[in-house]
Amino acid sequence: MERFLSSAINKVDKKGRVSIPAVFRPALKGGSTLYATLSVDQPAVEAGGPELLEVNEKRLAAMDSFSPEYEYFSLLVHGDMNIMNIDGEGRVILSDAIREHTGITNQVAFVGRGHFFQIWEPERFQAYREEARAKVAEMRRALSAGNGQGKDTGT
Amino acid sequence: MERFLSSAINKVDKKGRVSIPAVFRPALKGGSTLYATLSVDQPAVEAGGPELLEVNEKRLAAMDSFSPEYEYFSLLVHGDMNIMNIDGEGRVILSDAIREHTGITNQVAFVGRGHFFQIWEPERFQAYREEARAKVAEMRRALSAGNGQGKDTGT
DNA sequence: TGGGATAGCTTGGGCGTCAATGGAAAATCA
DNA sequence: TGATTTTCCATTGACGCCCAAGCTATCCCA
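Output (structure tokens, whole complex):
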């Protein structure tokens, strides 16, 4: 599999290690390094292989390197980047910054997002997921009120 | 690693020495000299190997050589350059000028910026980091409002 | 179709190595 | 010679690497 699909919850051991779900590892193509950034609008972390870094650097390359936007974005892409080594058993150690940002203590939710995956504190993820559902339901009601079609779309 | 990525906080000892984070040393390619300039618009220092000189000279070359900006920047790049020796344990001593400009007392934040890295007083860095996160979140919202796409950071 | 065997995923722990830090000895300068 | 800097050595704690065990899902065969 080349993409990150499905989700899983794993435990953090005494040494602070967590197994990356086995279903995600093929998408990392055997690399032993994980690149991760703290999401700017959620208590989550977005992680993936080196492509994650390359993608962001391409974006930077397309920006005016003297603009304040470049400055801010580069800080997040380079300075705020978390680099994690994957051990022989497919585990990583979460940095203090990650634990602080996500609220993770002894359990981690891994959520596939296609070309990257997210790391959440399980309860917060659950809350976010329900919020997302509620939002979608609300949007659908608004749409149906507007055009009179309202019937379910099957999904 | 050829680039400076991630960040770390290290202590200053009684003699004024600080360890350069081990993850940055490969990017210095074993050189024992650190070149550093005081950042113009932040209470930070920008440091790196000899290439940093070249980079700054390229920047100069891109500027109008009769402009006052050129004059000042040239002075900063050449005259205000701090040269630091890296000792056997990978430590450097911060000059008075650097301590004054950054406000550093007994802790130093090292922040990767790609082809160079920054040195900050940790609390000031934290404030700047949050500012950057807020600004990037704002940029992203502006973008999504414009094209209707979400906050997907992956691609 | 049921049950046992098997392989692989997750988790736990031991141990050696290296990074970060502190301090002493040696060298340099005024 | 006193003071300050540079080099060298020691300590501590974190991290990487290795091995082991429990669990689960899958596969195979009767």
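The interface with chain B takes residues 37-41, 46, 48, 52-53, 55-57, 68-69, 71-83, 113-116 of chain A (CB under 8 Å).
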